[in-house]
């Protein structure tokens, strides 16, 4: 007996084969377009959420007379992301913002990053039913926003 014939049943789907004709391929393209539309919607939603969180943090730091924190964060983190450029050296930021040393400037950046994460997680808590989903959504947002969009446009531009 032929081994190929003996194992043919394993290779055959239980429901049988589906015939694909050229007009059926349009359904595949529609599903793919739908997935891209979903991705674009999610990217836009995440970018809007990010903008809201950053605006809240900015107002908070300006209102509490910690505008130096915001300026350092903006120069070191936000501006390079938006321009798709390298971050300027801390020494340069210190001179521009009137900060006495790079360690202090670095600590200011870390402080604002932590606040950003806390505010983003709080916003997500308002949107999802469980703490586990907050973390999943948090990491998914960061993943989506760190990838270039299909059309080459990054969020927040």
Summarize the structure.
The chain is mostly helical and 157 residues long. It has helices at 3-6, 8-11, 25-63, 67-83, 90-97, 102-125, 131-146.
- What is the general shape? elongated
Indicate the low-confidence ranges by residue numbers.
151-157
Tally the structural domains: 1
**What structural class do the secondary elements suggest?**
mainly alpha
Outline the structure in words:
The chain has 157 residues and is an all-alpha fold. It has one domain (24-146). Helices cover 71% and strands 0% of the residues. The protein has 7 helices and no strands. The longest helix has 39 residues, at 25-63. It is elongated and about 80 Å long.
Keywords:
157 residues; mainly alpha; elongated; disordered C terminus
Task: Detail the topology: elements first, then pairings.
Blueprint (H helix, E strand, L loop, with lengths): L2 H4 L1 H4 L13 H39 L3 H17 L6 H8 L4 H24 L5 H16 L11
Helix pairs in contact: 3-4, 3-6, 4-5, 4-6, 6-7
């Amino acid at each position: 007996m032929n081994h190929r014939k003996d194992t043919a049943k394993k290779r055959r789907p239980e429901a049988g084969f589906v015939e694909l004709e050229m007009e059926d391929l349009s359904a595949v393209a529609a599903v793919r377009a739908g997935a891209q539309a979903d991705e674009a919607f999610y990217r836009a939603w995440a970018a809007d959420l990010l903008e809201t969180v950053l605006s809240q943090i900015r107002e908070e730091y300006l209102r509490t007379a910690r505008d130096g924190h915001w300026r350092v964060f903006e120069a070191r983190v936000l501006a390079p992301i938006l321009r798709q450029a390298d971050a300027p050296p801390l020494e340069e930021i210190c001179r521009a913002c009137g900060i006495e040393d790079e360690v202090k400037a670095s600590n200011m950046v870390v402080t604002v990053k932590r606040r950003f994460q806390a505010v983003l997680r709080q916003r997500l808590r308002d949107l999802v039913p469980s703490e586990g989903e907050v973390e999943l959504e948090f990491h998914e947002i960061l993943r989506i926003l760190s990838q270039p969009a299909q059309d080459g446009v990054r969020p927040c531009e």
